[in-house]
Design a protein that fits this description.
eight-stranded antiparallel sheet; 32% helix
């Protein structure tokens, strides 16, 4: 007996099931092809030693979902995350920050203004250095600078926004690497950037050095602020992140 599913029928199934245009996700352009391959791989694999193929009515809802959940995961409290050592997790943090900048081109820096109201600033020039240390160029932020005069504590959020990373993780039913992380810390005073810091920044934007925007935005970068990171707040997304942050993750079994 031949395979009951081919690429055409799988594609037709996706076109029939996909959401309307206004509700489509950013994954839609590639989801159809990948789903077709997954369907074909499932149906066209013999179900037993007789070589017969699976009946389409036997397709389980979790065929693409990976291992069954084993419990319910919750985020750590601030007291618990304070016990996580920044230095010990620095390599993982730097990997997340690299993936975040590659996919998003910025990090979200949260501060509090004089009225106690939260404010978030996108910063693309933040770079990590030695464990627990980082810096960013202070060229454009206005509210951020004002807020730091009142309260120098910040929370930085880095998110891997790669479409492929998320689509692959959704198909597997788990994240192959932590998708995001928060760092809490204290910002120092404005100072002149060193030649090493300037050179490092120019390497980051070197690919667009010939553009008009490069000269307009980054031609006069000269002032930086240091950040000393003191605590990690992992981002947990239920069972999808069950494999990360080692023994620090907390899973409540139900």
């Amino acid at each position: 007996m031949g395979c009951p599913v081919d690429g055409g029928s799988a594609g037709l199934a996706w076109r029939t099931l996909r959401p309307s245009r206004e509700d489509r996700s950013p994954f839609e352009p590639v989801t159809g092809k990948l789903l077709g391959l997954q369907m074909k791989a499932f149906f066209c694999t013999p179900s037993d030693e007789t070589g017969t193929f699976r009946d389409s009515r036997a397709l389980p809802n979790r065929a693409l979902a990976g291992p069954a959940p084993t419990g319910r995961q919750r985020e750590l409290t601030l007291e618990e995350t304070g016990k996580m050592d920044v230095s010990e997790n620095w390599s993982e943090i730097k990997r997340i920050f690299r993936a975040s900048f590659k996919s998003s081109f910025h990090f979200a820096v949260a501060t509090v203004n004089r009225n106690g109201e939260p404010h978030v600033t996108p910063i693309g020039s933040l770079m990590l250095g030695e464990p627990g240390r980082g810096f960013y160029f202070e060229e454009f932020p206005i509210n951020l600078k004002s807020n730091l005069q009142v309260n120098k504590h910040v929370c930085v959020l880095a998110v891997n926004s790669s479409r492929w990373f998320w689509l692959k993780s959704l198909l597997l039913g788990r994240f192959t690497a932590p998708p995001a992380v928060r760092l809490r810390g204290t910002v120092g005073e404005t100072r002149d950037a060193t030649e090493t810091e300037l050179s490092r920044w120019q390497r980051r934007v070197n690919s667009v050095r010939l553009s008009k925007g490069h000269a307009l935005m980054w031609g006069r970068m000269s002032k930086v602020r240091d950040i000393e990171f003191t605590a990690i707040e992992p981002v947990y997304i239920g069972e999808m992140t069950r494999d990360h942050w080692g023994s620090q993750s907390r899973t409540e079994h139900v």
